[in-house]
Amino acid sequence: MNYEYIGTSTITAIILMVIIGTAVPLIIAAIWKIKTKEPISTIFIGAVTFILFAIILESIPKVFLFQVKNPISNYIANNKWVFVIVPALLAGIFEESGRFVAFKFLLKKRKNKKTAISYGIGHSGIEMVFILTFAGIQCLVFAQMINSGQFAKLLEQAGNNQVQLKSLQAIPQLIASISFGTLGISLIERISAILVHIACSILVFYSVHFKNKKILFPIAILLHTFIDIFAGLYQTKLVTNLVIIEGWVFVISIIIFSFVYKKVYEK
């Protein structure tokens, strides 16, 4: 489908996406800081650790496993279930390892259990900024280019570069699909992510500071992997109903958070 104009309602939804992606993490961090008097630096460390481990370090094996042509990447690409599980497992390993390193070394003197939640707020908050705010800003830039006619020139410049051309051609349809409905689903997905990130932060925090709780670290990896598998199921079209996927994830996230909070954090 050829989109030559991005409507006002879509642009409004994108602007709201940027605002929500920025405001929600800041509001949660501010409320937690005021309520608990916890150091804001813990939240900052959570955010920086996410960037280092999830954005930078995790991308290194992804290049070999998904982008560079080799027998392993070909096998993954041709097996949907493997394609679902591998990225989820990578996210689980790298993000939980980031938490472990942060609690073990950067936050080793902060043994107040509220530190776990502070870290989780920073970790999940910056992820929300990347997924909603930064993505929304990119969409706004491309929407302006599409409406002004500059995007057509960008397609012409791609020329015979089929990879770049195909990538660019998908952008207008992607932007036009954004609505208040999809924004609502994204917000539910982010709430689920915040709950799981805080729960995993609690598990890893306790695994670091209590010798008899070491098993909580691999449990956090498995829980993280399990939750991320749902996104892979939708991306590979193994499940096509996004509402059902996010609904299940939301329910499971509440169960995970409630269980971890009551059985680990409160004890």
From TrEMBL:
InterPro entries: YhfC. The keyword Kinase does not apply. The chain crosses the membrane at residues 6-31, 43-61, 81-107, 128-146, 191-208, 215-234, 240-261. The keyword Transmembrane helix applies. It comes from the Bacteria. Keywords: Membrane, Transmembrane, Transmembrane helix. This is Membrane protein.
